[in-house]
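agent> step 3/5: call structure_predict on target 'Metalloregulator ArsR/SmtB family transcription factor' (Actinomycetospora endophytica).
agent> reason: downstream docking stage needs a structural representation; sequence fetched in step 2, passing through unchanged.
tool.input:
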Amino acid sequence: MTDADDRLWAAVTEPGRRGLLDVLLARGEATPTALAAELPFTRQAVSKHLAVLLGAGLITRQREGREVRYAVEPDRLHDATQAMITAANRWDARLNAIKGLAESLHRADPGSEHHRAPPPR
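tool.output (status=ok):
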């Protein structure tokens, strides 16, 4: 995994940042003040979350006079989605392998102590 991947995962694992991304997706773009009005964070907390998202490449910023407006970076969001799909597929394969192993062990010895319910107390 690369540093960019680590930054991406760190950015999207925090629920507040995912909420911030949702608001940006719905609005198209917004200032930190507008985001703070829609989220249960202070403007300072919004700014910190924006910095992490910016560092992960998930958003862009553009200065308009005294204001800075943020928007989602669609290509990077697509990359993030694909990375999550790939990770989910790997976990599904691992879990299916574990399930298959457990089922084959059960078929090989269905009466073993490992498969019996514990005695009542």
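agent> step 4/5: record observation. DSSP finds five helices and two strands in the chain.
agent> proceeding.
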